[in-house]
Amino acid sequence: MRAQFVFSEIGVGLRRNLTMTFAVIVSVAISLALLGGALLAGQQVNQMKGYWYDKVQVSIYLCNKTDAATAPACARGAVTGQQKREIKADLEKMKVVDKVFYESSEEAFKHYKEQFPDSPLAPSLTPDQMQESYRVKLSDPEKFEVVSTAFSGRQGVHSVQDQKDLLEDLFNLLSGMNRAALFLMALMLIVAGLLIVNTVRVSAFSRRRETGIMRLVGASSFYIQIPFIMEAAVAGLLGGLLACGMLMSGKYFLVDQWLREQIPLINFIGWDSVLKVLPLVLAVGVIMPAFAAFLALRKYLRV
After folding, report:
1. Whether this model's pTM surpasses 0.90
2. What is the reported pLDDT for 1?
3. Is the dihedral of CA 59, 157, 147, 93 positive or negative?
4. Is 264 exposed, middle or buried (0-12, 13-18, 19+ CB in 10 A)?
5. DSSP SS3 for 62
6. Residue 156 has pLDDT above 80, yes or no
7. How much helix, strand and coil, in percent to the nearest 5, is found in the chain?
8. Do the Cβ atoms of 91 and 22 come closer than 8 Å?
9. How does pLDDT run across 57-106, given as a tens digit for each residue?
10. CA 91 – CA 100 distance, rounded (Å)
11. Residue 25 in contact with residue 235, Cβ under 8 Å?
12. Alpha helices of 54-115 — where are they, by DSSP H?
């Protein structure tokens, strides 16, 4: 096979269908950018889960004098010193419990004022209205039900709250957005595939005379088809490179320069994660258009 001829045919094909080739490059770039973005978003969610779930605590709120009149669980009155000691001792005996921290009503009042300084309730609150609590760090955050079952309804206990439930809604939202990005990516890949098929059909039709002559002089089907397949692969490669540029720009400008400063509590994924995704983006960018062109040629290339 003469490589010079193949490359010259690729150049001719790309120039003849410049508008459609540009449309293929853009659609492939957008779809691959969505693919890479969805993969990175999935890694970000998993990293956030690992980071925050490791810090999840179970809060056991104890009854105070105010709760005795308003909360059914505290109908027997405020928690006693004996009850607090028994609760702490039972917590420390549990295998799923890693550490136990005690927060007094004064500490709870101080933390509330620090976290919600502009709350309209802050001026009217007093330390004795705040609940004492035990903050329990679990060795396995999935074992919350063990603690909840053991202490919910116990005398002196107002309620048991798992912080994981507060984070679960956020992670579910992020996962839903990730699935939406994957769906949009699949839709864009279909659009790109249809554009590639149409581009190959137009290119094959415009060069039917040349391909007919090649067949007459004994050229194989693969030799005739390879320039068309390579055209699609080159367009896909350009789209993949553009998608890689979009992903790297998004990482640098959106994540590093803006989100990292706006949301310092989130541990964002690093450049190593981005660099691992880029080869996959390029591979899909080359293989998908080439495969679509191959399927189109089997049906539409008639000489």
Report:
1. no
2. 46
3. positive
4. exposed
5. strand
6. yes
7. 75, 10, 20
8. no
9. 788 889 888 887 778 888 888 888 898 999 889 888 888 888 888 888 88
10. 7
11. yes
12. 67-70, 81-93, 105-115
Contact 159, 73 (CB under 8 A): yes
Is pLDDT of 5 > 70? Answer: no
Q: Is 248 exposed, middle or buried (0-12, 13-18, 19+ CB in 10 A)?
A: middle
Residues 297 and 200 sit within 8 Å (Cβ to Cβ): yes
Q: Give the separation between CA 51 and CA 116, rounded to whole angstroms.
A: 24
With beta carbons less than 8 A apart as the criterion, state whether 159 and 132 touch: no
Residue 32 contacts residue 243 (beta carbons within 8 Å): yes
Assign 118 to helix, strand or coil.
Answer: coil
SS3 26: helix
Rounded-to-integer distance, Cα 34 and Cα 146, Å: 41
- 102 forms beta bridges with 134
C-alpha–C-alpha distance, residues 253 and 246, integer Å: 10
**For residues 36 and 32, what is the distance between their CA atoms, to the nearest angstrom?**
6
Listed residue (85, 232, 54, 74) closest to 155, CA to CA: 74
The pLDDT assigned to 225 comes to 73
- Identity of residue 133: S
- The amino acid occupying position 91 is L
- Is the distance from CB of 147 to CB of 94 less than 8 angstroms? yes
Nearest-angstrom CA–CA distance, 238 and 281: 11
Rg (CA), the chain: 31
CB-count burial class (<10 Å; 0-12, 13-18, 19+) for 55: exposed
Q: How many residues does the chain have?
A: 303
